[in-house]
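Quick one:
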Amino acid sequence: MGKIEIKDIPAAYFGIFFVVIIAAALLGKLPGGMVGGFAIMMALGYAFEWVGDRTPIVKDYLGGGPIICIFASAALVYCGIMPDGTKAVIDGFMKGGGFLTFYIASLIVGSILGIESRLLIKAGVRFAIPIICGLIVASLFAAVVAFVIGKNPLESIAFVTYPIMGGGLGAGVLPIAEIFEKTAGMNTEEVLGLLIPPMALGNVVSIIAGGLLYRLGCSKPNLTGNGNLMKVDADADVEETSSRELSYKALMLGIFTACTMVMAGRLLGMVITGVHYYALMIIAVAVLKCTNALPKEIEDSCAVWFGFMAKYLTAPLLVGVGVTYTDLGLVIDALSFANILLVVAVVLGAVIGAGLGGMLVGFYFIESAIAAGLCMANMGGTGDVAVLSAAKRMKLMPFAQISSRLGGALILVVVGLTVPFLL
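Output:
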């Protein structure tokens, strides 16, 4: 039996580090900013991930470590176990410190620059098809299940399908509620009370579905590209990744380029209004990739940085997602039998619709179901990280962000056009 390691750290040393950090947190000595944020989130994240990846049923069917990182952390807050000071440090690091933006930007830039440009163009122009198919089938499933259980099918589409597929709270549910208020004359607080619980439960179901799709890919390898969205011809020219070497220079170039592209997205937002800067950043990076504007050294460095972030900082980030962005109270509020059936129907419809729609345009079923289906049904950026982590498909981050941002914008258009006929 080999030595036990937790995230490549000998268990004995990890245990010492863990005890020191937890003691500082419990005694109110956890510093704010990067030092305290990284320390507590790495300690909890690596521990929860290790447990989740070794827990029966959880590791096989529910996504393993990622789902434990999120919901164990959220439970610490919900049950009042985590000190307020520790929560404040994590909240500050995730929001004010911008760790979530830093992580997502690193994965977007690294994964796009690591894709062969011809495949990127092919996949990008076809991606709207599975998104639209996912929305249509999710709405259809919600209507059918609502009819069977005695609910109003049209209202179920409005109050369950739309908030789940809307791209989260800030970019989805809140503007949807405003549309409901103006179009249907409903009170905003009342609408939010109806929309938020299904959205929260839909995020949970989407994460679990990500883990299940990973298992499906293991048992049905013909349905998956193992992280590659587009089916590749036998003679296709796929980029070689084995030559990319981890070095201090590569990490520096990866960080610098990722942060620069965030600035580019925000600057473009001054000219192209009404579009989230993540979407503009994706477009900018894709243009650089497709025009070969960057030296291969920079592209490879961004791919190396992507690999480092995905391997070592995903679990800490998911702890932040659990503490800062996951309200177990909202999930519990949504746990009625009817709501569970409707939410599962919507997520299942998104998976089947996006998966089959993707196959129509040459995508793998599982990757399309995840990127265009589940990443529409979760809660935006934080949900994308959780779903892709549970499904072990972090390379799909650019397409996940397209689903969350541009797909979420599509939902707002659909809501505005259809709500008068649904309510």
